[in-house]
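Fold it.
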Amino acid sequence: MNLDDKHFDIYIILVNYGNWEDTVMCLQSIEYCSNGLNIIIVDVSNLNNSLKFLKETTQKLTSNNYRIIEQKENKGFAAACNIGIQITLRENPGSFIWILNNDTVIDHETLPNLVNCYCKNADRNIAFIGSLILDFSDHDLIQYAGGEIDLKRAIFKVNEEGKKLSGLNLPEEINTDWVIGASMLFHASVISKIGFMPEDYFLYYEDIEWSLKANQKGFVNIVCTKSHVYHKQGSSTGLEYSTGQNFNPVTAKYYYSNYLKFFKKNFPEKLNRALFMMTKKTIGQLMRFNLSHSVIIYKALISHLKKT
């Protein structure tokens, strides 16, 4: 599909937090694969002199419209995304918005297939459409193909995680409880119905709660399996969110504390189960001699209990 032929106005929002090299690679893949798009890069805190390198890069890219927004204070991922969303709503409230992680790359079919999927399902009251998220180093390895919030066990089940795409026969669309923020396409009009991305998480779970809110408002969220995004998971945060591995203490704190916040806000009747799962996780890490990991989980538990 040629996006230009159908006159879709599309705004892409990228958040950069220090890892400007990843952002540059992402921008180059967008430039190579598409034209006529509006790309908003929200740079947070200008870490590693990111602004300089991003400005130098975008000056050399000519196929799309690029702009860099400087956000001096780090208010979290959602706050940065919302800056881009607000700009889009002011300029073109009839456009599509695509939130894309800066530590990703795309191919020629990623965006056309995503938009095609939206148009094909236009009668289903769609809120968010996500891509099939594949590993950057192994394009056959699935990181995300939709997911389910398992309330019985207070866990988030990611479809086909860790499996090889070549060994599966996935349907073109998969209903999902949440669309991951690594690739999240929606029409700007959805914001008037469900509001902006929740900012009180700072990092992690904001995409899940936003998707949940859309579900509660009668919308549907789906994953388009023909739209592939290649993701360097944990590049900017140091944490692989689905496994909790390769973390740094600062971001891991949000990963675990916000897990409890999510259930307290949205499913308080399941909070005790979530606390049990966190305790079990702490013990499991201790048994594996991952002391630093277990300490972070334990501190998140204690911090939550002190607030109750």
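Residues 249-307 form one domain.
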